[in-house]
């Protein structure tokens, strides 16, 4: 193992030392390599690939084979960050055995070091089953995109006090079950702060304000490559849509006007 590799004990230390954890999604080799070289702590092969790569409406159709395929590409590009793979819809809900078998594929075939799946109390036994066999689990609560139909859309969760109390309880149970970290998605800033203070493992926020132990963004949002919708919490650090579109137009125009290729761009 690369001696600079980010490991679970390093992530835990970061929480204890108050150092923020930077997490970014990636779905293929070149972008995973760039994210790793930029010093990301965790690279998440998110099931958001269903939306930002496959162009689907939500994450539900993503399959285990697709997750394994994308995790393999990402793993090949990453030398330092911890590679974390999402468990897609219905790969862990059906039974503990399925959860174990499918998580095992992401580690064994995909090269991930850890897996992530969504849910609170209902998946506590899945977390126990996987951690028992040393498969590290990041949990994911709050706005859980695989529950899009129950939630009636991508809506902020935990605004009423009953739901907020339940989320705090879920986080504590997931920690006790062995999760090494928890994603807090789409919840009020103050609730994310309370959960972060209530548990010893790191929280990773997305749409959960500035008080989590780390943050995650979807790469295509950060790069301005996904433009269909833009949640309030997304900060765009680049406009890849404009750059790519300009480059494609210039190329097309050069080809159509006989300006590309030149003699010099061919072989003698
Ligand atoms: O699938 C994903 O990219 C995620 C992040 C949004 C946390 O789960």
Can you describe what's shown?
With 268 residues, the chain is α/β, with parallel strands linked by helices. It folds into two domains: 230 residues, Phosphoenolpyruvate-binding domains (TIM Barrel, Alpha-Beta Barrel); 30 residues, no CATH class. The protein contains eleven helices and eight strands. Strands 1-2-3-4-5-6-7-8 form an eight-stranded parallel beta barrel, surrounded by seven helices. The termini are far apart. The relative contact order is 0.12. 3-methyl-2-oxobutanoic acid binds next to strand 6.
Name a few traits of the molecule.
268 residues; eight-stranded parallel beta barrel; 11 helices
In brief:
The chain has 268 residues and is an alpha/beta fold. Helices cover 41% and strands 14% of the residues. Residues 25, 44, 46-48, 86, 183, 185, 206, 216, 218 line the site of 3-methyl-2-oxobutanoic acid.
């Amino acid at each position: 193992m690369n001696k600079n590799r980010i490991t679970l004990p390093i992530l835990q230390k970061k929480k204890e030392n108050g150092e923020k954890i930077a997490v970014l999604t990636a779905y293929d080799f070149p972008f995973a390599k760039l994210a790793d070289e930029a010093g990301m702590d965790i690279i998440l092969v998110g099931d958001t690939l269903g939306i930002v790569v496959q162009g689907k409406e939500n994450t539900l159709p993503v399959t285990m084979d697709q997750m394994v395929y994308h995790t393999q590409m990402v793993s090949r590009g990453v030398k330092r960050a911890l590679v974390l793979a999402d468990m897609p819809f219905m790969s862990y809900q059906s039974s503990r055995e399925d959860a174990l078998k499918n998580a095992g594929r992401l580690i064994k075939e995909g090269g991930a070091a850890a897996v992530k799946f969504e849910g609170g109390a209902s998946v506590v036994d899945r977390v126990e089953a996987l951690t028992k066999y040393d498969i590290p689990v990041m949990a994911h609560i709050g706005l859980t995109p695989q529950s899009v139909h129950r939630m009636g859309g991508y809506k902020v969760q935990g605004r009423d006090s009953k739901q907020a109390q339940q989320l705090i309880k879920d986080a504590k149970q997931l920690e006790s079950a062995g999760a090494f970290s928890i994603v807090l998605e789409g919840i009020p800033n103050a609730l994310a702060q309370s959960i972060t203070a209530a548990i010893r493992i790191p929280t990773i926020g997305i749409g959960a304000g500035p008080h989590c132990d780390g943050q995650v963004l979807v790469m295509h949002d950060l790069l301005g490559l996904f433009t269909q919708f833009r949640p309030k919490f997304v900060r765009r650090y680049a406009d890849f849509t404009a750059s790519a579109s300009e480059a494609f137009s210039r190329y097309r125009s050069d080809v159509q006007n006989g300006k590309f290729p030149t003699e010099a761009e061919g072989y003698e």
